[in-house]
Amino acid sequence: MLTVVDGRSPLTITSYESDLRSLLEHLGSEDALLAVSGTRLDSYFAQLRLMGRKSSSVARAMSSCRGFYRFLVDEHLVEVDPSTRLPVPGRAQSLPKALPETTIDALIIGVQGNSALDIRDRMIIEFLYGTGARVTEMLGTEVQDVDLDEMLIRLMGKGSKQRLVPIGRQLAQSLREYLGPDGRKQLATAQSKSRLILNQRGNPLTRHGVNEILLRRARASGVEAAGLHAHAFRHSCATHMIAHGADIRVVQELLGHSSIATTQRYTGVALTTLRTAYESSHPRASGLS
Protein backbone atom coordinates (compact mmCIF):
# COMPACT_ATOMS: atom_id res chain seq x y z
CA MET A 1 0.00 0.00 0.00
CA LEU A 2 2.73 2.44 0.98
CA THR A 3 4.75 1.51 -2.08
CA VAL A 4 1.92 2.01 -4.53
CA VAL A 5 0.16 5.04 -3.07
CA ASP A 6 2.86 7.05 -1.36
CA GLY A 7 5.95 6.10 -3.35
CA ARG A 8 7.86 5.33 -0.18
CA SER A 9 11.37 3.94 -0.32
CA PRO A 10 11.97 0.31 0.72
CA LEU A 11 13.84 1.55 3.81
CA THR A 12 10.87 3.71 4.87
CA ILE A 13 8.45 0.83 4.34
CA THR A 14 10.63 -1.45 6.44
CA SER A 15 10.64 1.13 9.25
CA TYR A 16 6.85 1.50 9.11
CA GLU A 17 6.40 -2.26 9.19
CA SER A 18 8.67 -2.46 12.24
CA ASP A 19 6.62 0.25 13.97
CA LEU A 20 3.36 -1.60 13.34
CA ARG A 21 4.80 -4.95 14.43
CA SER A 22 5.89 -3.37 17.71
CA LEU A 23 2.40 -1.99 18.26
CA LEU A 24 0.89 -5.40 17.48
CA GLU A 25 3.22 -7.12 19.96
CA HIS A 26 2.29 -4.55 22.60
CA LEU A 27 -1.46 -5.06 22.09
CA GLY A 28 -1.17 -8.84 21.86
CA SER A 29 -3.45 -9.72 18.94
CA GLU A 30 -4.83 -8.49 15.63
CA ASP A 31 -8.29 -8.23 17.21
CA ALA A 32 -6.87 -5.87 19.82
CA LEU A 33 -5.16 -3.89 17.05
CA LEU A 34 -8.54 -3.35 15.36
CA ALA A 35 -10.36 -2.51 18.58
CA VAL A 36 -7.76 -0.34 20.32
CA SER A 37 -8.87 2.94 21.85
CA GLY A 38 -7.22 6.31 21.57
CA THR A 39 -6.38 6.20 25.28
CA ARG A 40 -4.58 2.88 24.82
CA LEU A 41 -2.54 4.34 21.95
CA ASP A 42 -1.63 7.34 24.11
CA SER A 43 -0.40 4.95 26.78
CA TYR A 44 1.66 2.98 24.28
CA PHE A 45 3.52 6.01 22.95
CA ALA A 46 4.08 7.32 26.47
CA GLN A 47 5.69 3.96 27.25
CA LEU A 48 8.00 4.31 24.25
CA ARG A 49 9.22 7.64 25.63
CA LEU A 50 9.80 6.14 29.06
CA MET A 51 11.85 3.39 27.43
CA GLY A 52 14.19 6.08 26.11
CA ARG A 53 13.14 6.04 22.45
CA LYS A 54 14.31 9.12 20.55
CA SER A 55 11.67 11.73 19.86
CA SER A 56 12.22 11.26 16.12
CA SER A 57 11.56 7.52 16.48
CA VAL A 58 8.37 8.12 18.46
CA ALA A 59 7.25 10.69 15.87
CA ARG A 60 7.78 8.19 13.07
CA ALA A 61 5.91 5.47 15.01
CA MET A 62 2.99 7.86 15.49
CA SER A 63 3.02 8.65 11.77
CA SER A 64 2.99 4.93 10.96
CA CYS A 65 0.08 4.43 13.34
CA ARG A 66 -1.97 7.30 11.88
CA GLY A 67 -1.37 6.10 8.34
CA PHE A 68 -2.34 2.55 9.25
CA TYR A 69 -5.64 3.52 10.88
CA ARG A 70 -6.52 5.94 8.10
CA PHE A 71 -6.08 3.03 5.71
CA LEU A 72 -8.34 0.81 7.86
CA VAL A 73 -11.05 3.48 7.92
CA ASP A 74 -10.79 4.04 4.16
CA GLU A 75 -11.13 0.30 3.58
CA HIS A 76 -14.10 0.13 6.00
CA LEU A 77 -12.24 -2.33 8.24
CA VAL A 78 -12.85 -0.11 11.29
CA GLU A 79 -15.44 2.59 11.80
CA VAL A 80 -13.50 4.94 14.06
CA ASP A 81 -9.89 6.10 13.74
CA PRO A 82 -8.39 5.84 17.25
CA SER A 83 -5.25 7.73 16.20
CA THR A 84 -7.00 11.06 15.63
CA ARG A 85 -6.34 12.13 19.21
CA LEU A 86 -2.60 11.54 18.89
CA PRO A 87 -0.59 14.76 18.85
CA VAL A 88 1.37 15.65 15.76
CA PRO A 89 4.84 15.83 17.30
CA GLY A 90 7.14 18.59 16.24
CA ARG A 91 10.54 17.31 15.23
CA ALA A 92 13.53 18.99 16.80
CA GLN A 93 15.67 20.55 14.11
CA SER A 94 19.13 19.43 15.16
CA LEU A 95 21.97 20.78 13.09
CA PRO A 96 23.64 18.34 10.70
CA LYS A 97 27.07 17.21 11.89
CA ALA A 98 29.82 17.90 9.39
CA LEU A 99 33.29 16.39 9.47
CA PRO A 100 36.25 18.80 9.63
CA GLU A 101 37.95 19.33 6.29
CA THR A 102 41.21 18.09 7.82
CA THR A 103 39.53 14.81 8.78
CA ILE A 104 38.33 14.19 5.23
CA ASP A 105 41.73 15.06 3.80
CA ALA A 106 43.45 12.69 6.24
CA LEU A 107 41.01 9.92 5.41
CA ILE A 108 41.58 10.23 1.65
CA ILE A 109 45.35 10.49 2.01
CA GLY A 110 45.29 7.51 4.36
CA VAL A 111 43.90 5.18 1.69
CA GLN A 112 47.26 4.01 0.40
CA GLY A 113 47.90 1.23 -2.08
CA ASN A 114 47.09 0.45 -5.68
CA SER A 115 44.91 -2.64 -5.37
CA ALA A 116 41.43 -2.60 -6.90
CA LEU A 117 39.91 -2.24 -3.42
CA ASP A 118 42.23 0.66 -2.54
CA ILE A 119 41.32 2.41 -5.79
CA ARG A 120 37.61 1.77 -5.18
CA ASP A 121 37.69 3.00 -1.59
CA ARG A 122 39.45 6.26 -2.50
CA MET A 123 36.85 6.82 -5.19
CA ILE A 124 33.97 6.16 -2.76
CA ILE A 125 35.20 8.84 -0.36
CA GLU A 126 35.78 11.32 -3.18
CA PHE A 127 32.32 10.52 -4.62
CA LEU A 128 30.46 11.01 -1.33
CA TYR A 129 32.27 14.23 -0.46
CA GLY A 130 32.61 15.60 -3.97
CA THR A 131 28.97 15.21 -4.99
CA GLY A 132 27.10 15.36 -1.66
CA ALA A 133 25.14 12.33 -2.87
CA ARG A 134 23.06 10.19 -0.58
CA VAL A 135 24.69 6.79 -0.15
CA THR A 136 21.72 5.13 -1.89
CA GLU A 137 22.18 7.48 -4.85
CA MET A 138 25.85 6.62 -5.10
CA LEU A 139 25.21 2.89 -4.82
CA GLY A 140 22.50 3.09 -7.50
CA THR A 141 24.80 4.80 -10.00
CA GLU A 142 25.51 2.85 -13.18
CA VAL A 143 28.74 3.03 -15.18
CA GLN A 144 26.89 4.78 -18.00
CA ASP A 145 25.74 7.50 -15.58
CA VAL A 146 29.32 8.81 -15.38
CA ASP A 147 30.31 11.21 -18.18
CA LEU A 148 33.96 12.14 -17.77
CA ASP A 149 33.95 14.10 -21.02
CA GLU A 150 31.23 16.46 -19.80
CA MET A 151 32.37 16.04 -16.16
CA LEU A 152 28.85 15.14 -14.98
CA ILE A 153 27.21 12.31 -13.04
CA ARG A 154 23.52 11.44 -13.28
CA LEU A 155 22.00 10.60 -9.91
CA MET A 156 18.61 9.09 -9.16
CA GLY A 157 17.24 10.84 -6.09
CA LYS A 158 14.18 10.50 -3.91
CA GLY A 159 10.93 9.99 -5.76
CA SER A 160 12.89 8.74 -8.79
CA LYS A 161 13.95 12.31 -9.59
CA GLN A 162 17.08 12.51 -11.71
CA ARG A 163 19.65 15.26 -11.43
CA LEU A 164 23.05 16.00 -12.93
CA VAL A 165 25.89 16.92 -10.60
CA PRO A 166 29.32 18.18 -11.62
CA ILE A 167 32.46 16.09 -11.23
CA GLY A 168 35.32 17.93 -9.55
CA ARG A 169 38.97 17.47 -10.46
CA GLN A 170 39.85 15.10 -7.61
CA LEU A 171 36.77 12.95 -8.12
CA ALA A 172 37.44 12.81 -11.87
CA GLN A 173 40.93 11.52 -11.21
CA SER A 174 39.60 8.86 -8.83
CA LEU A 175 36.89 7.80 -11.29
CA ARG A 176 39.35 7.49 -14.17
CA GLU A 177 41.58 5.32 -12.02
CA TYR A 178 38.65 3.19 -10.84
CA LEU A 179 37.23 2.75 -14.35
CA GLY A 180 40.67 1.90 -15.68
CA PRO A 181 42.21 -1.58 -15.98
CA ASP A 182 43.33 -1.77 -12.33
CA GLY A 183 40.04 -0.82 -10.69
CA ARG A 184 36.49 -1.97 -11.36
CA LYS A 185 37.55 -4.42 -14.07
CA GLN A 186 39.48 -6.40 -11.45
CA LEU A 187 36.33 -6.72 -9.31
CA ALA A 188 33.76 -7.43 -12.04
CA THR A 189 32.72 -10.97 -12.89
CA ALA A 190 30.75 -12.44 -15.77
CA GLN A 191 27.61 -11.94 -13.67
CA SER A 192 28.36 -8.32 -12.75
CA LYS A 193 26.01 -5.88 -14.38
CA SER A 194 26.55 -2.17 -14.98
CA ARG A 195 26.45 -0.99 -11.35
CA LEU A 196 29.36 1.38 -10.79
CA ILE A 197 30.51 0.30 -7.35
CA LEU A 198 31.15 -3.39 -6.73
CA ASN A 199 32.28 -5.41 -3.74
CA GLN A 200 35.19 -7.81 -3.87
CA ARG A 201 32.91 -10.58 -5.17
CA GLY A 202 31.71 -8.49 -8.09
CA ASN A 203 28.27 -7.80 -6.61
CA PRO A 204 26.79 -4.33 -5.98
CA LEU A 205 28.14 -2.82 -2.77
CA THR A 206 25.63 -2.23 0.05
CA ARG A 207 25.07 0.69 2.43
CA HIS A 208 26.40 -1.46 5.27
CA GLY A 209 29.45 -2.29 3.18
CA VAL A 210 30.17 1.41 2.58
CA ASN A 211 30.05 2.24 6.28
CA GLU A 212 32.28 -0.73 7.10
CA ILE A 213 34.80 0.51 4.54
CA LEU A 214 34.76 4.02 6.01
CA LEU A 215 35.29 2.76 9.56
CA ARG A 216 38.07 0.41 8.52
CA ARG A 217 39.84 3.12 6.55
CA ALA A 218 39.45 5.58 9.42
CA ARG A 219 41.06 3.18 11.89
CA ALA A 220 43.91 2.46 9.49
CA SER A 221 44.48 6.19 8.96
CA GLY A 222 44.33 7.10 12.64
CA VAL A 223 41.20 9.18 12.04
CA GLU A 224 38.57 9.50 14.77
CA ALA A 225 35.77 7.12 13.77
CA ALA A 226 33.01 8.62 15.96
CA GLY A 227 30.28 10.07 13.77
CA LEU A 228 31.91 8.72 10.64
CA HIS A 229 29.30 7.32 8.28
CA ALA A 230 28.38 7.80 4.65
CA HIS A 231 25.75 10.50 5.26
CA ALA A 232 28.27 12.62 7.18
CA PHE A 233 30.03 13.31 3.88
CA ARG A 234 26.80 14.74 2.43
CA HIS A 235 26.51 17.04 5.45
CA SER A 236 30.17 17.96 5.10
CA CYS A 237 29.91 18.74 1.38
CA ALA A 238 27.03 21.17 1.95
CA THR A 239 28.49 22.77 5.08
CA HIS A 240 31.94 23.32 3.57
CA MET A 241 30.54 24.73 0.33
CA ILE A 242 28.40 27.27 2.20
CA ALA A 243 31.32 28.11 4.49
CA HIS A 244 33.43 28.83 1.39
CA GLY A 245 30.80 31.12 -0.09
CA ALA A 246 28.55 28.93 -2.27
CA ASP A 247 25.05 30.25 -2.96
CA ILE A 248 22.49 28.29 -0.97
CA ARG A 249 20.37 27.60 -4.07
CA VAL A 250 23.37 26.06 -5.80
CA VAL A 251 23.81 23.75 -2.80
CA GLN A 252 20.09 22.96 -2.86
CA GLU A 253 20.33 21.90 -6.50
CA LEU A 254 23.47 19.84 -5.86
CA LEU A 255 21.92 17.94 -2.96
CA GLY A 256 18.57 17.46 -4.66
CA HIS A 257 16.55 19.12 -1.90
CA SER A 258 12.98 19.86 -2.94
CA SER A 259 12.73 22.61 -0.31
CA ILE A 260 15.22 25.40 0.33
CA ALA A 261 14.33 25.12 4.03
CA THR A 262 16.11 21.77 4.19
CA THR A 263 19.28 23.29 2.75
CA GLN A 264 19.11 26.28 5.09
CA ARG A 265 19.98 24.02 8.02
CA TYR A 266 23.54 24.01 6.72
CA THR A 267 23.85 27.78 7.04
CA GLY A 268 23.45 27.28 10.79
CA VAL A 269 26.31 24.80 10.81
CA ALA A 270 28.50 27.08 8.74
CA LEU A 271 27.83 30.01 11.09
CA THR A 272 28.57 27.83 14.12
CA THR A 273 31.86 26.77 12.55
CA LEU A 274 32.66 30.37 11.64
CA ARG A 275 31.99 31.54 15.20
CA THR A 276 34.21 28.80 16.66
CA ALA A 277 37.05 29.66 14.27
CA TYR A 278 36.62 33.38 14.97
CA GLU A 279 36.63 33.01 18.74
CA SER A 280 39.68 30.74 18.69
CA SER A 281 41.78 32.83 16.29
CA HIS A 282 40.82 36.50 16.44
CA PRO A 283 42.97 38.38 18.98
CA ARG A 284 40.04 40.54 20.14
CA ALA A 285 37.41 37.79 20.26
CA SER A 286 38.26 36.33 23.66
CA GLY A 287 40.10 37.02 26.85
CA LEU A 288 37.71 39.69 28.14
CA SER A 289 35.90 39.17 31.42
UniProtKB/TrEMBL annotation:
GO terms for molecular function: DNA binding. The keyword Zinc-finger does not apply. Residues 94-279 form the Tyr recombinase domain. Keywords: DNA integration, DNA recombination, DNA-binding. Residues 1-73 form the Core-binding (CB) domain. InterPro entries: CB, DNA_brk_join_enz, Integrase-like_cat_sf, Integrase_catalytic, Integrase_recombinase_N, Integrase_SAM-like_N, Tyrosine_recombinase_XerCD. One of its GO terms (biological process) is DNA recombination. This is Unannotated protein. It comes from freshwater metagenome.
